[in-house]
């Protein structure tokens, strides 16, 4: 499998085309950003840690019957993935109150949410990823009603799998975001799942072990990512 050119460079990943139009190479970089790019740093080992973390989680989801774009880990920082037509919507599940939910609704951080809160956001940095609903998605043609229903069902299925996975490592999956795309007329999980796109707390101390360590200047960002990974069975290179 040969890379043939750069397709897209995001905040923390670069996507390359290959000699197979159905496959892409996803490169995880050390770049780290927060607050819509206002805070940017390079964190040593971040690319390889997130690549291995994502590969492990995607395999867990595939074993549970959830279709993902992940095909194989190619190197410490690169993975082979299916070429999806991405839907510009983020699906967010919140098992506990944190972040923007607390700011918007005045809910105390850490409040258990039962049932979990599900939210849609438009993936648009210039607009600061505004919250949207099913009606917006269907009216503006970002996805059909059936695709919306599939994304929601798959996101909640992911929640069942991953809350149990992280609970086994004495961790709380506080919240997370997922992105989906179309592959041969099928809705498939895309992007990544790593501590960059979720909140994970120690179940006993409630210590934050995710990207909030970077946002809030708590230090030991990558060390915490690795600690989370080891708790759920990842053996980092």
TrEMBL record:
Residues 7-231 form the SAICAR synthetase/ADE2 N-terminal domain. It holds the Pfam family SAICAR_synt. Its EC number is 6.3.2.6. One of its GO terms (cellular component) is cytosol. The lineage of its organism: Bacteria, Pseudomonadati, Pseudomonadota, Gammaproteobacteria, Oceanospirillales. It comes from Saccharospirillum salsuginis. The keyword Ligase applies. CDD domains: SAICAR_synt_PurC (cd01415). PANTHER family: MULTIFUNCTIONAL PROTEIN ADE2 (PTHR43599), SI:DKEY-6E2.2 (PTHR43599:SF3). This is Phosphoribosylaminoimidazole-succinocarboxamide synthase. InterPro entries: SAICAR_synt/ADE2_N, SAICAR_synt_PurC, SAICAR_synth, SAICAR_synthetase, SAICAR_synthetase_CS. GO terms for biological process: 'de novo' IMP biosynthetic process; cobalamin biosynthetic process. Belongs to the SAICAR synthetase family. Pathway: Purine metabolism; IMP biosynthesis via de novo pathway; 5-amino-1-(5-phospho-D-ribosyl)imidazole-4-carboxamide from 5-amino-1-(5-phospho-D-ribosyl)imidazole-4-carboxylate: step 1/2. It catalyses: 5-amino-1-(5-phospho-D-ribosyl)imidazole-4-carboxylate + L-aspartate + ATP = (2S)-2-[5-amino-1-(5-phospho-beta-D-ribosyl)imidazole-4-carboxamido]succinate + ADP + phosphate + 2 H(+). Keywords: ATP-binding, Ligase, Nucleotide-binding, Purine biosynthesis. One of its GO terms (molecular function) is ATP binding.
């Amino acid at each position: 499998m040969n890379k043939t050119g750069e397709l897209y460079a995001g905040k923390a990943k670069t996507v390359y085309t290959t000699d197979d139009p159905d496959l892409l190479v996803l490169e995880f970089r050390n770049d780290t950003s927060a607050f819509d790019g206002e805070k940017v740093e390079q964190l040593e080992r971040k690319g390889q840690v997130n690549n291995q973390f994502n590969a492990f989680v995607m395999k867990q989801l595939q074993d549970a019957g959830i279709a993902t774009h992940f095909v194989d880990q190619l190197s410490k920082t690169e993975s082979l993935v299916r070429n999806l037509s991405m839907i510009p919507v983020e699906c967010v599940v919140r098992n506990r109150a944190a972040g923007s939910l607390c700011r918007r609704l005045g809910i105390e951080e850490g409040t258990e949410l039962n049932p979990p809160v599900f939210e849609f956001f438009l993936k648009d940095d210039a607009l600061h990823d505004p919250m949207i609903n099913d009606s917006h998605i269907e009216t503006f043609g970002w996805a059909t009603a059936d695709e919306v229903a599939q994304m929601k069902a798959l996101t909640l299925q992911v929640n069942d799998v991953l809350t149990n996975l992280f609970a086994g490592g004495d961790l709380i999956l506080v919240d997370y975001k997922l992105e989906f795309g179309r592959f041969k007329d099928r809705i498939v999980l895309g992007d990544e799942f790593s501590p960059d796109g979720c909140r994970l707390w120690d179940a006993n101390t409630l210590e934050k072990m995710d990207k909030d360590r970077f946002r809030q200047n708590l230090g030991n960002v990558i060390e915490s990512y690795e600690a989370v990974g080891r708790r759920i069975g990842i053996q980092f290179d």
